[in-house]
Write a structure and sequence with these properties.
- This protein is of the alpha+beta class.
- The protein folds into four domains: about 300 residues, 3-Layer(bba) Sandwich (FAD/NAD(P)-binding domain); about 140 residues, Beta Barrel (Elongation Factor Tu (Ef-tu), domain 3); about 100 residues, Arc Repressor Mutant, subunit A (Orthogonal Bundle); about 50 residues, GidA associated domain, C-terminal subdomain (DNA polymerase, domain 1).
- The protein is about 35% helix and about 20% strand.
- It is built from 21 helices and 22 strands.
- The strands form five sheets. Strands 1, 2, 6, 7, 8, 9 and 20 form a seven-stranded mixed β-sheet that branches. The chain has a six-stranded antiparallel β-sheet with strand order 14-15-16-17-13-18, with no helix packed on it. A four-stranded antiparallel β-sheet has the order 11-10-19-12, with no helix packed on it.
- The protein starts with a strand and ends with a helix.
Length: about 625
């Protein structure tokens, strides 16, 4: 008997098992292959636009994706530096072999986690509540809660041209049985499709003609526990398709499972296959490709932007018409994979299913795509499975608190009609949800439930105190014209004619807080006395100072909407009697069963006037 059983040890399953175990639950992690824990099935990278924020949120909450990324990092870049700080997003290339190994170390070091290598093909359900699982070997394990994180394995089918293989990843068996069981229990089951490119031999790449893309010279990290920036820097490379490549690809369309009707699943809009790109963007004569190293000590490269399910000979011929790849050899072809998913509107905000008590879903089976989205869901499912097993309250994050909150709210309220990928544009409060302040937003919440332990909690409190001390110094320190005017002239800023507070200088758009500290000696001494990373500390303060007006306005809007949004909708409300609500609105409210006004307001088809009527009916 366990408190929590986690089925699947991908990114979602690893975070779920770890979180539940740290909180004190006795956990069983069941995986089909112990050597593939947290496998990077697609590109060997973590983070990116909005995804980097999710990894830092996971870290701030006490998860391990950020720590493992730092331990396996071979390149770091902060994306979107040319835009506002709400858009800045960290991204890291990782050694995919070390990444998996480090995750296994994390999980094996927790004595509350047991492991079982097997495939789960049946859930044990008693009186509409989960009781355990039954495996392919016929072994029964019993548990208070179960978290399903099956990824692309549930009834997975791999497509390479006319070749069809049953599998969850290339050369790996699929999982069967759970989908049909859940369908018989009344769950809606759908099909989705994703894809991955060929992996190529680095020895056969002509790097001399490619554009080198290095990481940030100063390095970086994901985890807020890191005291020094990681500077390991293995380059990626950029090349492009061309008209000849597109013509070769089109020759294979007759055997393409995407275009001959073989693939029925819905594919990802924002990570399309190369054949999708040349059809959708037919006016373009080239598409950018990134060659990403799979690790520090391997010759294997990943071709980001060239996912394909075309026949092997078509893929190889097309690749050999790309600059730098004229003599390329491949290790394995690109392929598409179809798999079962469960529309996430069937979930509560804790990620517990509505139909079966104590059963939780996380990751790609909820219709998402990406390691980061999976990890965030896994962490939340693991916390809530532990809480359910111990009769504790649900742990929910709101949209104005985190990207993870935006992700789960979008899934449960709106559902998905294609694989869901997080973007900064999905968050209406993105100036509040920056990558630099994840620890300040979330670590105290995680500490309260016992997930973020003492050292992490102490560090964020120290960071907050140090920021306050620096801001107070800037507010109190008066600077003389002769002390600052040369610096201002150098930065093409207007000089001052009398003493001003240093904070007024710091708020000027063209003034860097780091450069200001190099000019004002007492300010520099104060920063050097701080224990937090000086660059990260000054960057965070600079953002808050220069965007203070926007931040304050967004907080006010968030608070107003939050007060309204948290109003509970009592169970048993008969929407059919509310004839003042539009027909579509009534149908959507009956189908989605929102628990709060905020959730109801975000359901597509429920209008603001419908919300006004609903508020009247519940006495508000």
């Amino acid at each position: 008997m366990y408190d929590v059983i986690v089925v699947g040890a991908g990114h979602a399953g690893s975070e779920a098992a770890s979180a539940a175990a740290i909180l004190g639950s006795k956990v069983l992690l069941i995986t089909m292959d112990m050597t593939k824990i947290a496998q990077m099935s697609c590109n060997p990278a973590m983070g990116g636009i909005a995804k980097g924020q999710i990894i830092r949120e996971i870290d701030a909450l006490g998860g391990f994706s950020g720590i493992v990324t730092d331990r396996s990092m071979i390149q770091f870049r902060m994306l979107n530096r040319s835009k506002g700080p709400a858009m800045w997003s960290p991204r890291a290339q990782c050694d995919r072999f070390i990444f998996s190994l480090e995750w296994r170390k994390v999980l094996e070091s927790n004595k509350n986690i047991d492991f079982w290598q097997d495939s789960v093909n049946e859930l044990i359900i008693k009186r509409k509540a989960i009781a355990g699982v039954r495996t392919r070997l016929g072994v029964e394990f019993f548990s208070k809660t179960v978290v399903l994180t099956n990824g692309t394995f549930e009834n997975g089918i791999i497509h390479i041209g006319k070749t069809k293989l049953k599998g969850g990843r290339i050369s790996e068996s699929p999982s069967k049985g759970i989908s049909s069981q859940l369908y018989d229990l009344g769950f809606e089951v759908g099909r989705m499709k994703t894809g991955t490119p060929a992996r190529i031999d680095g020895r056969t790449i002509n790097f001399n003609v490619l554009e080198e893309q290095k990481g940030d010279i100063e390095g970086g990290n994901f985890s807020f526990l890191a005291r020094e920036k990681i500077t390991t820097n293995k380059s990626c490379y950029i090349t492009y398709t061309n008209k000849k490549v597109h013509d070769v690809l089109k020759e294979g369309f007759q055997d393409s499972p995407l275009y001959n009707g073989t693939i029925k699943g819905i594919g990802p809009r924002y990570c399309p296959s190369i054949e999708d790109k040349i059809v959708t963007f037919s006016e373009r004569d080239k598409h950018q490709l990134f060659l990403e190293p799979e690790g520090e000590n391997t010759i294997e490269y990943y071709i980001n932007g060239f996912a394909s399910s075309l026949p092997l000979k078509t893929q190889l011929k097309a690749l050999r018409n790309i600059s730098g790849l004229e003599k390329v050899n491949i290790f394995r072809p690109g392929y598409a994979i179809e798999y079962d998913y469960y529309p996430p509107t069937q979930l509560r905000y804790s990620l517990e299913t509505r139909k079966i008590k104590n059963l939780f879903f996380a990751g790609q089976i909820n219709g998402t795509t990406g390691y980061e989205e999976a990890g965030g869901q896994g962490l939340m499912a693991g916390i809530n499975a532990h809480n359910r097993a111990n009769n504790l309250e649900e742990f929910i994050l709101n949209r104005d608190e985190s990207y993870i909150g935006v992700l789960i709210d979008d899934l449960v309220s709106k559902g998905v009609d294609e694989p869901y990928r997080m973007f900064t544009s999905r968050a209406e409060y993105r100036i509040l949800l920056r990558q630099d302040n994840c620890d300040e937003r979330l670590t105290r919440k995680a500490h309260e439930i016992g997930l973020a332990k003492g050292n992490r909690y102490d560090l964020v409190n120290k960071k907050i105190r140090e920021k306050e001390a620096i801001i107070k110094f800037l507010e109190d320190y008066s600077i003389e014209p002769q002390e600052i005017n040369i610096f201002l002239e150098k930065n093409r800023e207007s000089v001052i004619k009398q003493k001003v507070k240093l904070i007024d200088i710091a708020k000027r758009p063209q003034i860097s807080l780091k450069e200001l500290s190099d000019t004002v000696n007492s300010f520099k001494q104060l920063i050097e006395s701080m224990s937090s990373n000086a660059d990260d500390l000054t960057e965070s303060i600079e953002i808050e100072l220069k965007y203070s007006g926007y931040i304050e306005r967004e907080k006010q809007i968030a608070n107003k909407i939050s007060r309204l949004g948290r109003i509970k909708i009592y169970k048993g409300l008969d929407y059919n009697k509310m004839t003042s609500i539009s027909t579509e609105g009534r149908q959507k409210l009956i189908s989605k069963k929102p628990e709060t006004i905020g959730q109801a307001s975000r359901i597509p088809g429920v209008s603001p006037s419908d919300i006004s009527v609903l508020l009247v009916h519940i006495g508000r």
